[in-house]
Amino acid sequence: MNDRFARLTLMRLAEPGDAVMGRLVAAHGPEGALAQIRAGRLDAGFARWFAGTRRRGAAGTAGDETALDDDAAVKLDRILASWTARLETADPDRDLADGERIGARLIVPGDPEWPTQLDDLGDSRPHALWLHGEANLRFSCVRSVAIVGSRAVTPYGTHVATEFGAGLSERGYGVVSGGAYGVDGAAHRGALVCDAPTVAVLACGADVTYPTAHHDLFAAVRTQGLLVSECPMGVRPTRPRFLVRNRLIAALSRGTLVVEAAVRSGALNTAGHATELNRHLAAVPGPVTSETSAGCHRLIRQGAATCVTTPAEMIELVGAVGGDLAPEPRGPVFPRDQLSPETRRVLEAVPTRAGAGPAIIALAAGVDLDTVLSCLGGLAAAGYVERVPRGWRLRPSPPSGPP
């Protein structure tokens, strides 16, 4: 059995993100790990490592070391028994055939398309990934941002997620999300407006459409991006798989943006993974009265996330230092802003209704008479002031902008 077939089998034996299986594979390789599981006996050194992790996790609790080692042995035996029980249903040939049937492809670590940033997950790195779509996963994630948030989204959240998805895609950044209702779906739809790829990371098999109402959305994602899954074919989503899936969303992207998340939102789980992986984390503020934005506000208040309000600000956060700076927000520029300081002083000294002579205007403006005469001519030509029998006054309708 080669490496790929061994990894396909391991995907059937352990749940995604199983760090114990991940450590076994890291220590002995996929084929070596599978051979030990088939034999029903794990390497003694691996068993000692497992006991050591249990001991460190239980530091400070009562009980002697021998009892703790016995407890670890029982726990490891149960894990091995669960893996062994699933061997009967593992069929890598069938999985490959099912993948080919729907047009999906399998990638494993070391393949040209494998994103090396997934190595940051350590022992919880996926054994392999099923990809369904036209884009290249590695290239799609080189410059990418994860957008996550509430499923029970408000019109505000839908608008913001769509705008960020489109704005990032327009600037050449891929958008990574989970394909769920709410913020996820809005982010994917926004990204599809432009040419950059969008990646939907699933909590089920690549041949399972969940949610079913996103059938058309997933079809569009496949043409411009990718559906990604670490689950075997036919696997249905569960709550734990959604939470475990979130680590991939955080790991694949340069940074994670949280849009509209309540204090118990699953999006905050993705935010936690981003922080653990040393990825950039940002959040979009919402109305202070909105419970659906309370999680975002808490992240910002605690200093865990950077407050961003535009796609350009998000790119500044995750982009090249000094090369992707967002423009500073500025108010509108009015014609009066283009006047010289002296001319503005003269204009401010011109009365609104009753006219005033140049000498009075000069006194009020604090400039000499020649300057007033020169400025009044230019202001009259520009339509700011007009001549009246008693001197000069402001025109009733200035060119534009506030007075």
UniProtKB/TrEMBL annotation:
Pfam families: DNA_processg_A
Domain (Smf/DprA SLOG) ranges: 106-317
Taxonomic superkingdom: Bacteria
GO biological process, one term: DNA-mediated transformation
Database matches in InterPro entries: DprA, DrpA_SLOG
UniProt family annotation: Belongs to the DprA/Smf family.
Alphabetical list of PANTHER family matching this protein: PROTEIN SMF
Name of protein: DNA processing protein DprA
Lineage: Bacteria, Bacillati, Actinomycetota, Actinomycetes, Streptosporangiales
